[in-house]
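The records we work with from here on pair a chain with its fold. The integers have meaning only within a learned vocabulary of local backbone shapes. A complete example follows; check for yourself that the lines match position by position.

:::
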Amino acid sequence: MTVTRRSPAPRGEFRTGPWAEPPALVVVAHGSRDPRAVRTVEALLDRIRRQRPGLPVHLGHIELNEPLLPDTLASLGTAEAVLVPLLLSRGYHIKRDIPEMAAESAVRARVAGALGPHPLLVEALRARLAEAGWRAPEDEESRRSSAVVLAAAGSRDPESRVDTGRTAQLLAERLGVPVVPAYASAAAPTVPDAVRALTASGRHRVAVASYFTAPGRFATECAEAAPWIASAPLGTHPAMTRLILHRYDQALARPATLTGPELASA
């Protein structure tokens, strides 16, 4: 029997055809000193593997945790991969860090954009709020007294605030009450400031929606500022699995070159 060996595809190009192996999915997490964050991300990757058997799934962190992204990419050699950031909005990591790490590796890679904004995130946020005790206002008086603070990590990048604001708008349309974006750091308003402003305007039924991918210091501090209920981080909600795979598939549909990430909101 004659065995035909396939030569590697040129850098920046992906194989196609019935015998092509799927490019690896590399989920890029930020990293956290909170051990719950690592456990949550690993559980999320296990869900992805179960949903799409046969797809090689790897994890790389930007900082703080192992494996670091450069080490994960080094372990892949010259393989094909799609890097999907486990980040909810645009910012320095999306625009610079991840593309530069990919470009410095031998991996033939495409880099997806941020997870948000996207309706699947809104689905997960609504579900987490419901788990915490949120119920849709039943009358006009309840609607006038209800509101949600969308608690995000924060960034100095103005496009990050645009993305978070868009998610807040989508969530407000879904819930039928005002949703105010607020931040744990680097941007204003802070979550306590947003809560105080809503309370001062007569909104006394204020929930905090945790716009974080996993537990950590910021998520804990934001939850502690909630005057009523606070939802859990997005974590392993099924919508997160679907969205990561959606971003993977979107990246594969783009031209097969190593480029910077693009925001894809649909």
